[in-house]
């Protein structure tokens, strides 16, 4: 029995970016599920360096073509190559003669936009990035937003702001605050990345703008690190980046076995949207309820009680309870508990966790109390919930490129 040839494959990605890490994870998933034998070349620190790449003697390359420098460096290469990147409205903007696996920028924006519409919002805006060659994917998301808005006979409000650097940080945040104040309220804002969404949430906090009653925010990437750095849990569209990685690996494997794929293009839709507090817009009629819910979102997981919420709002506990019953049909304690439950389900859905640690992080007094809340509100234990979510997240089959 012949031993399958081991191919030497270069992965040219910047793994400090969540999108690139997820693509690499998808490639690894393909290798594990198919027993394909590849020796992978990545820089030791997982950063992308192009110097000398033209001298690399391997069998194949999968590369992030969102960076124009990568496309230029690989243009002379005769090694089998699969490109990964964002989709383009103009088909002429795709690299010629290179199989290309793209995140569907239009569908990413459309999913976020429709979510904000479903939340009852009628004003919308997009927080993008400065125009630059390396930000072409962001400009494609601007085009998608503009198309959707004009289709609904609305004006596309787009703000690019500055690139964030330490010397200009205060100025950049100041511009964001001024832009936020200029928007009609309530407004739903789509940020082209979770990093931009996180900045906007900081700007809202500085400006005293309540999220999500006044400004509802949705990011893109579902980046766990960005979510951990926000006080209010952040909604985000999940790119199908792992599916892109599996698809790209599948294409390259076919090329290594003699298939010619030429201008094959496969657009991968988003995997869904992780809806958390930052975009759960519910128009609050009473300002005391709005202010109380803003405080709860920020501090529920720190073990706050009803009296502390009332103190923050500046009214008696009984008055606040009355407002909550009238407007929301629940007590202040119920609202705090619901937020803790949402935080716990988000952590459990992300992977294997210690239940005692989850209870502590989410403000429950004990794992036993968290267990009883799960059983009462969701009809299952925290562990059963985690196992159910893990089952739903199992990998889907890799699509056949001939069907793309």
TrEMBL record:
**SUPFAM superfamilies registered for this protein in UniProt:** Homeodomain-like, Periplasmic binding protein-like I
Keyword match tRNA processing: no
What SMART domains does the record tag this protein with?
A: HTH_ARAC
The answer to whether keyword Transcription regulation applies is: yes
The UniProt keyword set, sorted, is:
DNA-binding, Transcription, Transcription regulation
One protein family per Pfam: Peripla_BP_3
Q: Where does the record place the HTH araC/xylS-type domain? A: 290-388
Protein name, please?
A: XylR family transcriptional regulator
